[in-house]
Write a structure and sequence with these properties.
It is built from 11 helices and 8 strands. With about 280 residues, it is an alpha/beta fold. It has an 8-stranded parallel β-sheet. Helix 7 links the parallel strand 6 and strand 7. It is globular, with a radius of gyration of 17 Å.
Amino acid sequence: MSIFDEDKIDCHNHILDPRRFPYAADTAYRPSGQEMGTRMQHEAVMDAYGIRHALIVEPNSGYGPDNRCLLDAIAQSQGRFKGMAVVANNCSTEQLQVLKDQGIVGIAFNPSLLGLDYYADALPLMRRLAALDMLVQVQVHQDQMCALAPMLLDSGAQLLVDHCGRPDSTQAPSQSGFAAVLALARCGRATVKLSGLQKFCDGGWPFAAARPFVQALLDAYGPEHCVWASDWPFLKASERLDMGPLLRWFEQLLPDARARRQVFWHTPCRLLGFEAGAMVPA
């Protein structure tokens, strides 16, 4: 059976629909052209590649903490989507509960874009998320995990690391930031997204420099704490990317069908609360 025929959950992608949901006036980056993707366009891509469910991540580009486009997509998906929202660090438990009731499973923290200082006061928010059994999703790059890991561990929350921890692929996997990402696996509360190869891989397609890092994550976390994600529609990508070749890349990395099903289906079902036996509405 081809990977295209296997059930999959895409754990990082974006809905960008400025015609229906205009971008914030003060946004620093306004995705356009092929960077945009509506709910209907996204579902068509999912259907073409056997992707049954998706975790839609609120993009800092365009929308930031304006989660209306995300919430609308979830509401119209008939259970096919869940979401990762962006909120202010002082977001209350009551506000988080309202988001959870609308299909939001966690909050996205993005030090790679906003810096570590922006999240200096974020520990109480992370603890509120832990109390609500919601995820703390974090995107770091280079050595940021070294400084952030103590806060993440102290939070008590379930953790989801974006885009392989975005190491520097010109250095060895032993580099300090990536070593901290690998060490986070030992807490038993962390899962990592095998995704975003274009965000850290020197040399681009076919991402040869990314393979030792992805393999190290699989070895450290195991398939039970790894999930796959496309990063569709590939914001700020420096070269052409398509869903099919990315899926083939991971099929070659994970030739064992049982391990692949764990990463692409069972682990995200458990982590995100999708029912493993549920069928996508016709």
